[in-house]
Specification:
alpha/beta; nine-stranded mixed sheet; 12 helices; globular
Length: about 500
């Protein structure tokens, strides 16, 4: 199969003019609009909205079909660097109504009035939640769940009722809706890549699909394989992929520019048994999503490069995806092995289930040698320790540059993805030293931090951020705008980060 297994998103369009009054009856001289109308209301006492279908309900007002949905518009507590996700209430509302309509098999389009029911500044959040909330990953089911009905965003006159006010609102709303659709499509691509089963998603298949997406967005892509991997020194990739019949690959994509040089690296492990340090059986089926970091990197890069707005074309962007399957066999790498990475640094292997940092080390060293970046960001479902520390809804940021760490957090808040910064303390740097090689791959101690400290040795002192998404890359349930299994987490953060980095001075 050459196509990425996928489910469609609902359609969205922006309409001008008022087709209902405030009590949702049709005003004189207007044809009645088709479909149902969205009505927002306060949450039920004692219930905190989380985007569940039960938070929406069908009713009738003035003879018209409406869907009522609970909205809690209060801002949550600030996160790292003071970042506040002000749109979460409306994303949850969008997800809740989409799930309600999906479960009710509702086919008629849904009309939402702006600014009547949703403020102009929050319509993008509602649309994003609506598009992603009910989009399942049941692409191989004989009878997949229905797609939520199309959404119509109706821009009514502003507070003064004048046409000029409405025109201004319509321009703002149209831009917000378009941005939400772009973000939803990027997130959906990341989810589809991460959710694809491993019997389909070999390293060859994965980098081919990623190469197609990046090439279509205007990047130049090259796949490193076979003898070229050996000649280029990808010892970590070859070691991790050595136990599988599906040979490893490394994708390198570049879009040159005159602005800041940015390197994005994403872990592309298509399935992770743990190798000889084998994982428990429980939960191993979810290891098909262990390339969620690379899915986010590629989806964000493709969306960014496809955006032809002024200023974005100047960013010099390189993407590197090291892809392998970590299997258990007679040719698998072993604890105690010494591996030589790109650039000559050696690693003592102490746990073959710490394979992500082995392939990332190669990719970071190769990417830095290729593009001489001003900024380096890697994204990976790297450590179970990260899940213990921050749970399933917050990503970890470990960075050598304060400005870059703050930019990640602020981009995440704007995109609806939470981040928290963890330290890189000097007193733990000795843990990644080896007595027989340059670095020790998986020492004891706080696992998320020591994994980042290991990778720090391969970034050549560049401004660098390591994003560990082992928790939020997957979800066991529908919550907020997130669906079960692959979430696409970090995609929208990276997209916002790239847009913000356009103004960062080039070194």
């Amino acid at each position: 199969m050459s196509e990425i297994p996928s489910r469609p998103l609902p359609g969205v369009r922006v309409a001008s003019g008022r087709t209902t009054t405030s009590d949702h009856t049709t005003p004189p001289g207007h044809a009645p609009a088709a479909g149902s109308f969205l009505v927002t209301r306060s949450p039920e006492p004692g219930r905190a909205p989380r985007g569940h279908a039960v938070e929406a309900r069908a009713s009738t007002r003035g003879g018209r079909s409406v869907v009522e949905v609970e909205v809690d518009a209060t801002a949550p507590r600030p996160g790292w660097a003071g970042a506040v996700d002000v749109g979460i209430g409306y994303r949850r509302a969008g997800a809740a109504v989409a799930r309600h309509l999906r479960d009710a098999r509702h086919a008629d389009e849904l009309v939402v009035s702006v600014p009547g029911q949703v403020p102009v500044g929050r319509v993008g959040d509602l649309v994003l939640g609506y598009l992603l909330g009910a989009r399942g990953q049941d692409v191989f089911a004989a009878r997949p769940e229905p797609v939520a009905p199309d959404l119509v965003v109706e821009v009514s006159p502003g507070a003064d009722g004048g046409s000029e006010s409405r025109d201004d609102d319509e321009a703002v709303v149209s831009a917000a809706v378009a941005a939400a659709v772009d973000a939803a499509r990027a997130t959906a691509l990341a989810r589809d890549l991460a959710g694809a089963p491993a019997d389909l998603k070999t390293p060859e298949w994965l980098v081919s699909r990623m190469s197609e997406a990046l090439t279509a967005a205007g990047m130049q892509a090259h796949v490193i394989e076979g003898e070229e991997l050996e000649e280029s020194g990808f010892g970590g990739v070859l070691a991790v992929g050595g136990g599988s019949a599906a040979a490893p690959r490394v994708l390198v994509a570049r879009r040159p520019g005159t602005g800041p040089r940015v390197l994005l690296v994403g872990k592309g492990i298509t399935f992770d048994t743990g190798g000889i340090s084998v994982k428990p059986a429980e939960g191993m089926h979810l290891m098909r999503t262990d390339m969620g970091g690379s899915a986010a990197v590629v989806a964000a890069a493709a969306a960014f490069c496809a955006d032809d707005r002024d200023g974005y074309a100047g960013l010099d962007l390189t993407v590197v995806v090291p892809s392998a399957e970590n299997m258990l066999s007679g040719s698998a790498y072993r604890p105690g092995d010494v591996v030589t990475h790109v650039g000559g640094t050696t690693s003592e292997v102490t746990n073959t289930d710490a394979e992500g940092r082995m392939v990332l080390a190669d990719a970071l060293a190769h990417g830095i040698a290729e593009c001489d970046p001003d900024v380096v960001v890697d994204v990976a479902t790297l450590t179970g320790a990260m899940k213990v520390a921050l749970g399933m809804r917050t990503g970890a940021v470990m960075a050598t540059d304060d400005d870059l760490a703050d930019r990640v957090s602020q981009a995440g808040a704007g995109a609806g993805e939470r981040w928290w910064r963890l330290p890189l303390p000097d007193n733990l740097r000795g843990a990644v030293s080896s007595t027989i090689a340059d670095r020790r791959q998986a020492p004891k101690g706080p696992g998320a931090i020591t994994a980042a400290l290991f990778l720090e040795g391969f970034v050549d002192g560049r401004p660098w951020a390591h994003l560990d998404i082992a928790g939020p890359a997957r979800s066991p349930e529908e919550i907020d705008e997130v669906g079960p299994v692959a979430t696409g987490f970090a995609t929208r953060t990276l997209l916002g980060l790239l847009r913000g980095l356009v103004d960062r001075p080039r070194a």
